[in-house]
Amino acid sequence: MKRFFILLLTLSVIGVLYGIYLFNKKPLDTREQNADFELTSEQLVNEFSANETSASAKYADKVLFVTGKVNEINLNSATVFLESGDPLAGVTCSFYPDEAPQLKELRVGQVVKIKGKCTGKLADVVLNNCSLSSLN
Amino acid sequence: MNRKFVLLIISLTLSAGSVLAQKYFTKTGTINFTAGTALEDIDANNKSVTCVFDAATGQIEFAILIKGFEFKRGLMQEHFNENYLESDKYPKSTFKGKFDVSKINFTKDGDYATVVKGTLEIHNVKREIEVPGMFKVDKGVISSTSTFKILLADYKIEIPGAVKDKISPTVEIQVSCDYKLLK
After folding, report:
1. Does the reported pTM lie above 0.90?
2. Which end of chain A has the least Cβ crowding within 10 Å, N or C?
3. What is the DSSP letter of B72?
4. pLDDT confidence bin for A41, thresholds 50/70/90
5. Nearest-CA residue of chain A relative to B62?
6. What are the tens digits of pLDDT across the range A62-117?
């Protein structure tokens, strides 16, 4: 009987600890996730321009590798804008704050590969939680 | 008749040109909100807020993606998207409004308090709101801030009984943008 209570107590402590762990778990870090798609900024913007609803269903909440030419770098907000060939729409890439120092190395016109989570499209297609994958 | 027509075209072109030259925008505005109570701290921020305003007419428009809100805790972010805001169904939130430009000199440094009236759309519900805002012109660079509160119930965001004492029925929203001239 005593053994049973000890077991019950242990299990409930584990349960509570697991609950606390789940509650405090951080959102997934895209840097540790596998990418679902790999494509160019042009392909991504074209798909959203052609059909925003179906492109959102396909890409929103997914981790992407996007390759494109740097159009602008905003160091204050740790954001990089990629060209897409369409003058009215590009890709806005909002970086993790701790990735910001790396952005100082970037130059406009450079081709880069960025990993981030797609959140949908406003004027631009938006990637959040971005990190730099490679420079060309 | 013909000359009048030409004059009309010229004046239209000129006014279109001047209006165009007075639009400002950002794609990196931020929105923070807090909806916590004494029992739980709940706050989130979105760093890719898009805003365009016309310094000549006072028309202003904001748009954000709901999935762009980041929380400190993963489950909170999940519940926010899936249960409360239903971001798959309603991916965006927008505000379209107007402020009085007559008391703001966008070419002169200073702080200009204003009031913005317009339609806020969240969770597919549109409501007319009126909120205070502040434009700041610093060395020619224009920025804006605004803090206001909304009621979750106004936007048909339902909080289940089990977490009712953890989530505040009133949410405080802070908006901040640094603008660039739209060319």
Report:
1. no
2. N
3. S
4. very high
5. A122
6. 999 999 999 999 999 999 999 999 999 999 999 999 999 999 999 999 999 999 99
| Cβ-based contacts of B65 with chain A (< 8 Å) | 119-122, 126
Question: Which residue is closest to A95 within chain B, CA to CA?
Answer: B47
Question: CATH no. for residue B35?
Answer: 2.40.128.110
Q: Report the gap between the CA of A36 and the closest CA in chain B (Å).
A: 17
Q: Which domain holds residue B109?
A: 23-181
- ipTM, interface predicted TM-score of the complex: 0.88
> Cα angle at B28 between A129 and B124, to 5 degrees?
85
The span from the CA of A60 to the CA of B65, in Å, is 10
Nearest residue of chain A to residue B176 (CA atoms): A77
Round to whole Å and give the CA distance between A84 and A93. 13
Residue A25 lies in a domain: no
**Total domain count for chain B?**
1
Backbone dihedral angles phi then psi of residue A34, each to the nearest 5 degrees = -80, 145
> Tens of pLDDT along B138-176?
999 999 999 999 999 999 999 888 888 899 999 999 999
Does B166 touch chain A if contact means CB atoms closer than 8 Å?
no
